[in-house]
Amino acid sequence: MIDESKNKSTIVLGVDPGLSMTGWGVIIRGTNDRLVLKNYGCIKTKPSSPLIERLKNIYFTLNKVIEEYSPEVMAIEELFFSKEARTIASVGQARGAILITAGLKNLPVYEYNPRHVKMALTGYGSADKKQIQQMVKIILAMKEIPQPDDAADALALAICHINTSNFKLKANI
After folding, report:
1. pLDDT mean over 155-171
2. Catalytic residue (one of 33, 67, 77, 84)
3. By the 8 A CB rule, do 10 and 29 touch?
C-alpha cells in the first residue's frame, strides 16, 4: 500500500503572538516528510504607537506573509494564563488581529499549548527555550538558531503542527 501523505507537500505558517513582537515562520513538509524552511521573521510594533495602529501593523504584515507564501494552515500558540494580566490582555489583542487575518483568508487555524510544542519537538514537556531553539535549528538544518526568539517559537509551532498531523495521518486518526 502506498502512503500518499508522503507525496503531498504542506505549507504551514507558524505564528507566535505578541503585541510588541509577533513571530512568524513558514515551513513546508515536502516529500517523504522532509521539512524545508521557506522564511521567518518578526512583526515589530512600537509601544509608543496607539493600540489600533499596532494591531493594524500585525494584520497588514501578516496578510502580506500569507499572500506571499500561500500557507494551507496556520499554527498558533494557545493563550495561557500563567502570565500577568496585562501581558495576557496584550497577547489576546494581538491574537485577535492574527485570527481575523487567518479568518479573512479562509486559513484553517490550529492552536497548540506550549507543553504540546515542547513534547512535539523534544519529547519532553518541560524543555527549556534553548532546547526548543536548538531542535528548530537541527530539524530545519539551519546553521544558526533563528533570531529573534519569537521567530524561533513560530517555527517551533509550525514544526509541532506538522509532527502532530503526521502522527494523526500515520495512526489514521
Report:
1. 77
2. 77
3. yes
